[in-house]
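Hi all, posting the design record for the shared folder.

TITLE: backbone redesign
STEP: 1 of 1
STRUCTURE INPUT:
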């Protein structure tokens, strides 16, 4: 399930590449077949990674992609494992059999100028990690990136934070470890779920859903029923990710409530759970609601790809002027002519450069870019000149949503910004564009529903 616009802030969990721009030759052993590392990418072949210095072995992995300087694998828990090619002595095929390719997974090869942007983004992230002793959140964000590539200092930093006596620090470190592709301690999640700290309970619930920990569903169900949105919304998303269909009756009420965050959480949960029963319920409810509630119902049908969803969105676009700007962003990606013209006209209109107008301008350009309009690159450049931190981060979010490496060069000035928060967000966006697996994990952590 892929959702659209997400909040315009970057939690800082991205990846780091440790400065290799060439392809290292790693021997593939354990099979009579003559295969390269790239031949294993996207197959179901189980392999063991053998490290050079220690001879340590990491078993039962599958190769996802081969990148300049690194290889991305996935372990049996479904978490990414990333190694520097220079640190690998060999990759050994287990059972001696290379499986046929089962997917279209392919290596992400960057052009030389794009690789240079990535290299600088990584170097800037290391600078920030070393400088940010006065800001634990920034240091934590940078450490998450570095730990993804097995940086010992960063990994040790996160592990120490996960062993403190402060549950919120433990959970933030656990979130960073999740984004870095490492396992999250179930004990920490249990402590968080059982904590009297509401923020800790909310973050622990989110991580349970993301990591597939289903042990604490009774406690999350109580959070789901809580009137406080800061508890009910994260619990709603977590239970939906865990496939708990007992929440559906309450979701059908929740989607009609005036609170925006609860409404979006309900849309996410219903779309994630899916099924003919939910589609039927949405069609039953649709004639009875107008405005934002109608849009929520239609968005569930849209994410579940029902035949009537786009036509219903067009009706909302033409009927509710206050909803038209958000709906146009969705319809333009579907190639709708009227929505595309609406967005182009909005871009040409003179507007005050307020933060809200600039953020919408960035989303507008993103929708047109995804529809194949190359002229929006100039719009991105213009918006990135804003002094507003929220505006710049909104552009970074749009770039991560688009996932196009063509956007990397636009981020170079932001990487060099003296404001560490802007620089780190820009650097992490560059690395996110270079690695589709990271982007998937980042989108899972920051879901929204397109409006």
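Okay, here is what came back for every position:
SEQUENCE:
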């Amino acid at each position: 399930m892929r959702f659209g616009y997400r909040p315009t802030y970057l939690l800082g969990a991205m990846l780091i590449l440790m400065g290799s721009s060439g392809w290292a030759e790693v021997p593939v052993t354990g099979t009579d077949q003559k295969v390269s590392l790239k031949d294993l990418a996207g197959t179901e072949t189980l392999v063991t990674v053998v490290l050079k210095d220690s001879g340590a072995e990491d078993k039962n992995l599958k190769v996802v992609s081969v990148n300049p300087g690194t290889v991305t694998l996935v372990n049996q828990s479904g978490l990414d494992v990333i190694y520097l090619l220079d640190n690998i002595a060999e990759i050994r095929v287990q059972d001696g059999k290379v499986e046929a390719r089962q997917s279209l997974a392919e290596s992400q090869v960057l052009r030389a100028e794009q690789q240079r942007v990535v290299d600088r983004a990584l170097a800037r992230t290391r600078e920030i990690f070393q400088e940010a002793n006065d800001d634990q959140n920034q240091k934590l964000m940078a450490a998450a990136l570095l730990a993804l590539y097995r940086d010992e200092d960063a990994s040790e930093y996160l592990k120490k934070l996960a062993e403190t006596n402060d549950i919120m620090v433990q959970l933030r470190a656990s979130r960073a470890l999740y984004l870095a592709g490492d396992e999250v301690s179930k004990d920490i999640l249990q402590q968080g779920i059982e904590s009297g700290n509401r923020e800790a309970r909310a973050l622990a619930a989110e991580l349970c859903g993301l990591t597939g920990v289903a042990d604490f569903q009774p406690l999350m169900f109580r959070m789901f029923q809580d009137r406080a949105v800061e508890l009910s919304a994260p619990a709603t998303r977590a239970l939906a990710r865990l496939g708990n269909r007992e929440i559906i009756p309450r979701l059908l009420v929740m989607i009609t409530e005036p609170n925006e965050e609860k409404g979006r959480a309900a849309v996410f949960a219903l779309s994630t759970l899916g099924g003919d029963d939910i589609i039927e319920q949405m069609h039953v409810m649709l004639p009875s609601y107008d405005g934002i509630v109608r849009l929520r119902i239609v968005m569930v049908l849209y994410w579940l790809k029902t035949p009537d969803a786009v036509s219903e969105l067009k009706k909302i676009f033409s009927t509710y002027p206050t909803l038209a700007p958000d709906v146009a962003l969705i319809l333009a990606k579907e190639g709708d002519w009227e929505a595309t013209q609406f967005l182009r006209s909005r871009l040409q209109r003179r507007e005050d450069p307020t933060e809200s107008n600039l953020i919408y301008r960035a989303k507008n350009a993103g929708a047109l870019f995804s529809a194949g309009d190359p002229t929006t690159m100039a719009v991105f450049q213009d918006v990135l000149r804003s002094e507003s931190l929220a505006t710049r981060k909104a552009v970074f979010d749009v770039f991560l949503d688009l996932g196009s490496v063509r956007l990397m060069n636009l981020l170079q000035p932001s990487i060099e910004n003296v404001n560490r928060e802007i620089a780190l967000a820009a650097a992490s966006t560059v690395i996110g564009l270079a690695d589709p697996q990271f982007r998937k994990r980042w989108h899972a952590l920051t879901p929204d529903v397109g409006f």
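COMMENT: The chain has a mean pLDDT of 87.
Let me know if anyone wants the other runs.
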